[in-house]
Amino acid sequence: MRCRAALRLPAVIAVLLITWGISINSFDVQEKARNILGFNYADQLKLQLKADSTTSAPKTKCGLSRLCPPDHFALNIQSGVANVIGPKICFEGKIIMSHVLNNVGSGLNIVVVNGQNGTVERFDYLNMQTGNPEDILAYLKAIKPGMIVLVASFDDVTKKMTDEMREAFVGMGSTLIKSVKHRDSWVFAGRVGTENKSLHERQAVNDAKTNAYEGWPGFVEVSGCFPKTKLTDDKLNGPL
After folding, report:
1. Is the pLDDT of residue 240 over 90?
2. Distance in angstroms (rounded) separating the CA atoms of residues 47 and 41
3. Average of per-residue pLDDT across 86-91
4. What is the pLDDT of residue 39?
5. 200 and 222 in contact (C-beta within 8 Å)?
6. Kindly report the CA angle at 208 between 205 and 214, in degrees rounded to 5?
7. What residues contact residue 174 under an 8 Å CB cut-off, 6+ apart?
């Protein structure tokens, strides 16, 4: 029995020495790797966590709750509040017209956008109080087919409104413009030359029973993803 115990002891010692040697070599290898590369696994993990925390998800535009598909533009249009606070028009994450920017006016505030590449071609306000109806109509008729038109009312827009102007907006996809009356609030996004009706349109009717303010309805707003212009056989296709 003593002989067997004596034989086992050197074997145990040998195993411990081998295990210790492997551990030392492994530690040396890790240290050498750290010295050569400048970091270890813990450092890598820290860098990865930092990268994950700094990499943010794509941001939505114009206050939308979701991202728009690649073939759509983000927009948000708010009408003016009575004749006090001007409207706001946001397109693809940029506010084009607003009361704060001091580039809005009484009447129809309008932004004209290239429907294919999203370039803002021009923006103006059409004075529906003192403007020349012929000039206003000429402005609307001069907008080329395929252009996206964003419109927000401010104050009353009907004083200089003519049937021809209403028909011009119908040709952009409006279904409500013919019913817009004195002091109504109205917002609209459409496309010139389309045969489709726009889904991006809202109206608040001036009604003493429901008005949000004395003599004025509340403001209206429309937001969403508007499809880019696609030209096929010289006709404008696709829903609005």
Report:
1. no
2. 10
3. 98
4. 47
5. yes
6. 100
7. 188, 190, 197, 198, 201
Span of 31-35, 71-75, 142-146, 226-230 with lowest mean pLDDT: 31-35
Q: Three-state SS string across the chain, please?
A: CHHHHHHHHHHHHHHHHHHHHHHHHHHHHHHHHHHHHCCCHHHHHHHHHHHHHHCCCCCCCCCCCCCCCCCEEEEEEECCECCCECCEEEECCEEEECCCCCCCCCEEEEEEECCCCCCEEEEEEECCCCCCHHHHHHHHHCCCCCCEEEEEEECCCCCCCCHHHHHHHHCCCCCCHHHCCCCCEEEEEEECCCCCCCCCEEEECCCCCCCCECCECCCCEEEEEEECCCEECCEECCCC
**pLDDT confidence of 158, banded at 50, 70, 90?**
very high
Give the CA distances from residue 31 to residues 24, 40, 42, 45, in Å, rounded to whole numbers and listed in that order: 10, 8, 13, 17
Distance CA 188, CA 14 (A): 87
How far is the CA of 181 from the CAs of 107, 140, 171, in angstroms?
A: 13, 19, 19
Task: Give the pLDDT of residue 37.
Answer: 42
What are the angstrom distances between the C-alpha of 95 and each of 80, 119, 120, 147, 182? Answer: 15, 13, 11, 18, 27
Provide CB contacts within 8 A for 138, sequence distance 6+.
none
Phi, psi of 4 (to 5 degrees): -65, -40
In tens, the pLDDT along 188-215 reads 999 999 989 999 999 999 999 999 999 9
